């Protein structure tokens, strides 16, 4: 959200909004440049640097409606549908007698021959097809991601995050019923951002690489989740409580993908499964830190009990009814969680009388 808010300043400057701040920036930094051509100054405030960092995303959402091209830079401003003129054009511009800060009107008044102007050769059809809007009083900047053509924080936020695909474990880790602390540690584990012993050894902090929990192999993410005999026993016991009589996979990313594909849905049973997984990651990491920093270890059954108690405590009081099926009743009985049940909706049938 901070980046989206900072992007508002890019929009105000590019659209020449009437404000003291825009006036100051224009007189201080934009005597020749536009906001799109301005490089990051070597000496400026951290805030101004952060504002300029939002240029690439803001550029994708901005477009200039040309009136006469006097206030739009030829090479730097987004006046073509396909984006800015190429960097090759900037390199060739001085060789063909064109100014680095030339306005668009310099070519609109008299279109050069593409054969004699290689700086624009690749974009020539697009340049010839560009429109001018005579009803406008001057060149006008529009924000292309909103119906009103005006900047909004929401559209800026969407533009920042549009290129980031949703990961398959999103609903698993960030389910609304999960404990925030559990979700955070599980999220760090999915990104393999927890500091394991092998990572500390690679940093030169220690020479030991063996797992704190079993002392039988290098402490990697694949080992900790759930190749280690200690954590494997914990997760396998909890999988049985979740109605899965199977062993964990040897790969952490493989197991994460399997859980993401099976622990889906919004029923009470599905919410308990998601909570159980995040609580398991959290409790295993807590046990890891207990061994590392306090030299205190618990039997794996104690960690299983911690996860079960966390889950029961979370869902001891809830108001979500559960579909009345034998599997749902058996699941909740294993977890000792009470719930109201709803009968499955009947499907209508019609009988055909044979003649």
Low-confidence stretches: none
The helix count comes to: 17
* Largest sheet strand order: 1-2
Mean pLDDT: 86
Structural class: mainly alpha
Largest sheet: 2 strands, antiparallel
- Strand proportion: under 5%
First-residue to last-residue Cα separation: 70 Å
**How much helix is in the residues?**
40-55%
Order of helices and strands: HHHHEHHHEHHHHHHHHHEHE
Question: What shape does the CA trace take?
Answer: elongated
- Total number of domains: 2
Number of strands: 4
The whole-angstrom Rg is 31 Å
Structure commentary:
This protein has helices spanning 2-14, 20-28, 46-52, 55-60, 87-92, 105-108, 124-128, 153-161, 170-173, 180-190, 197-202, 221-227, 229-241, 252-262, 268-294, 300-315, 326-335, and strands at residues 62-65, 140-143, 322-323, 341-342. By secondary structure, it is mostly helical. The chain folds into two domains: 62-143, no CATH class; 170-342, no CATH class. A two-stranded antiparallel sheet has the order 1-2. Helix 12 (221-227) packs across helix 13 (229-241) and helix 13 runs parallel beside helix 16 (300-315). The longest helix has 27 residues, at 268-294. The termini are far apart. The mean pLDDT is 86.
């Amino acid at each position: 959200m901070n980046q989206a808010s900072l992007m508002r300043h890019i929009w105000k400057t590019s659209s020449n909004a009437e404000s003291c701040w825009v006036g100051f920036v224009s007189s201080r930094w934009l005597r020749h440049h536009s906001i799109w051509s301005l490089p990051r100054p070597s000496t400026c405030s951290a805030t101004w640097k952060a504002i300029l960092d939002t240029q690439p995303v803001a550029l994708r959402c901005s477009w200039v409606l040309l009136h006469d091209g006097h206030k739009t830079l030829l090479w730097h401003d987004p006046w073509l549908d396909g984006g800015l003129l190429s960097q090759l054009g900037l390199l060739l511009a001085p060789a063909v007698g064109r100014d680095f800060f030339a306005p668009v009107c310099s070519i609109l008044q008299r279109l050069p021959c593409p054969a004699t102007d290689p700086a624009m050769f690749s974009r020539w059809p697009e340049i010839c097809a560009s429109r001018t809007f005579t009803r406008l009083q001057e060149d006008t900047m529009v924000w292309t991601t909103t119906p009103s053509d005006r900047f909004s924080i929401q559209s800026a936020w969407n533009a920042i995050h549009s290129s980031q695909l949703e990961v398959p474990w999103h609903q698993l880790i960030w389910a609304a019923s999960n404990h925030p602390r559990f979700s955070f540690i599980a999220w760090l584990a999915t990104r393999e951002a927890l500091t394991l012993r092998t990572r500390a050894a690679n940093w030169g902090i220690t020479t030991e690489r063996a797992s704190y929990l079993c002392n039988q192999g290098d402490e990697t993410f694949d080992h900790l989740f759930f190749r280690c005999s200690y954590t494997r026993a914990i997760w396998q016991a909890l999988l049985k409580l979740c109605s899965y009589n199977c062993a964990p996979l040897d790969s952490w990313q493989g197991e994460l993908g399997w859980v993401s594909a099976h622990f889906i849905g919004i029923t009470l049973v599905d919410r308990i499964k998601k909570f159980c997984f995040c609580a398991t990651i959290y409790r295993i990491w807590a046990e890891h830190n207990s061994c590392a920093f306090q030299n205190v270890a618990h039997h794996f059954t104690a960690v299983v009990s911690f996860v079960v108690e966390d889950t029961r405590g979370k869902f001891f009081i809830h108001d979500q009814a559960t579909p009345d099926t034998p599997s749902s009743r058996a699941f909740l009985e294993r977890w000792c969680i009470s719930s109201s049940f709803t009968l499955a909706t009947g499907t209508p049938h019609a009988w055909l009388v044979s003649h």
